[in-house]
Amino acid sequence: MMCLREIKTMPKLEGKDHTASMLREGYQFLRNRRRGLQSNIFETHLLGEQVICLSGEKEAELFYDTEKFVRKGAAPKRVQQTLLGEKGVQTLDGEAHRHRKQAFMSLMGAEQIQQLKVMAAGQWERKLRDWEQQEEVNLYEEAQELLLRLACQWAGVPLKEKEVKEKQKAIVQLFETPATLGFTHWKGKKAREEMEDWIGGLIKSVRTGALIPFEGTAMQVFSFHRDEKGKLLSEKVAAVEVLNIIRPIVAIAIYIAFTGHALIQHPEECEKHASGREKNLQDFVQEVRRLYPFFPFNAARVKDDFEWDGYKFKKGTLTILDFYGTNHDPKLWNNPEVFDPSRFVDEPITPYNLIPQGGGDYMENHRCAGEWVTLEVMKVSLDYLANRMMFEVPTQDLSYSLVDIPSIPKSEVILKHVKRKN
To answer: Does residue 7 lie within any of the structural domains?
Structure first.
């Protein structure tokens, strides 16, 4: 007697399209619907097409199965026009993705990461000297400039002093505008074009020998990188990949603002960092990454028809994984809305439960290659904010919205009378 597997009906949101609701609810949209439907998997319509929504650890493991999902055609055009750029590593699959990802991973060796940490400390020293001469500072804005200088220094991108403010404004628009509409989104597209033209011109100079970056930097690697077929990347695509190093580093400014937020809201945590113990720094920044909003979700498309957990997935269906909801899943985290770095003593981190920058394997999957960069830059930043300086916190609005994407504390974290600790 043949045993037939039960095919379950996927929970589905009523209504024709829920794009407007997603824009209204931001980070909470997927989590709210998951709670309402009492399911980690459900179907809806967004941007005029059928979409499967996933949340949770085993669902994340499914999402990053390269035999079941591909990235080609998944990222909305408006996201490519601002955040990602076109034909970058995030849009590739299979051997093309592995080959391009290897170039990124070649930048993440122990020696390069140590160099990054030394450079980051140098940039913080520079900022601290400046801040001691100022009445008050905006931590989010100051972190943007610090990180742009750091990113260009580490990536081998020459940055003239007179260009700093202009490039800072443009690079920030790449990650602040993907979820916006109208004129604001247009400004993000314009900034993308300007930044690609800038980096593309530098790559042309490298290829002609007019500019010689240090060996092993992003500028050197992508200027001469060849795809899996042996073809040299176009100047535009090479520029997209160099920006895929610079932009994420500058975006760490969001996490630095939230690091300052967490230190202000939880002053008892400062005492734990006095020893400079690596484990304490690591747990604190991991909890900042888990708790505070950053990327809301990621998208892929079903590679071929398959069944999973009794549900049918049809080829070509757009599928999104809820990063924020998974990082706040009460089935995965005790008291997930509470800031508690000590949770990492008992609660293990897996490739699929802590996914602020994606999940899975760095080489095979689309997990952010720069996650190590984020962690190390955040630890250096935390050490300076908690151990190497003191400051006053004026009255300000430290609340943050779960509707706005990306979310940033409303006051952007203002510090007064910054002084170096003796």
So the answer is: no
Q: What is the mean pLDDT of the chain?
A: 93
Percentage above 70 pLDDT, the chain: 97
User: Residue 260 contacts by C-beta under 8 Å, 6 or more apart in sequence?
Assistant: 139, 385, 413, 415
Instruction: Read off the CATH number of the domain in which 24 is found.
Output: 1.10.630.10
Q: What is the pLDDT of residues 217-244, one digit of tens each?
A: 999 999 999 999 999 999 999 999 999 9
166-198 confidence digits (pLDDT tens): 999 999 999 998 877 788 888 999 999 999 999
| DSSP code at position 88 | S
* CB-based burial label for 129 (10 Å; 0-12, 13-18, 19+): exposed
**Distance of CA 1 to CAs 4, 6, 8, Å?**
10, 15, 22
**In angstroms, what CA-CA distances link 366 with 25, 111, 408?**
26, 23, 25
Mean pLDDT in residue range 128-156: 98
If 0-12 CB within 10 Å is exposed, 13-18 middle and 19+ buried, where does residue 92 land? buried
Expressed in percent and rounded to 5, the helix, strand and coil fractions of the chain are 50, 10, 40
Give the CA dihedral 229, 235, 240, 244, nearest 10 degrees.
80
Residue at 390 is within a domain:
yes
Counting the structural domains of the chain, the total is: 1
Tally of CB atoms within 10 A around 132: 12
DSSP-based three-state secondary structure for 391 = strand
Query: What gap in Å lies between CA 90 and CA 370, rounded to an integer?
Result: 13
Domain that holds residue 348: 19-420
Give dist(CA 143, CA 191) in Å, integer. Answer: 19
Identify whether 5 is part of a domain: no
> For residue 370, what pLDDT is reported?
77
> Which residue from 104, 108, 100, 107 is spatially nearest to 226, judged by alpha carbons?
100
**Residue 76 confidence (pLDDT):** 82
Q: What is the pLDDT of residues 27-77, one digit of tens each?
A: 999 999 999 999 999 999 998 899 999 999 999 999 999 999 999 888 888
> How many angstroms separate the CA atoms of 252 and 408, rounded?
12
Q: Please report whether residue 127 resides in a domain.
A: yes
For residues 286 and 268, what is the distance between their CA atoms, to the nearest angstrom? 17
In the structure encoding, which two tokens stand for residue 325, read together? 């909801």
Rounded distance, CA 311 to CA 39, Å?
12
Question: Which strands, in side-by-side order, build the sheet including 49-54?
Answer: 41-46, 49-54, 318-322, 297-302, 69-70
Residue pointed to by tokens 């809820």: 322
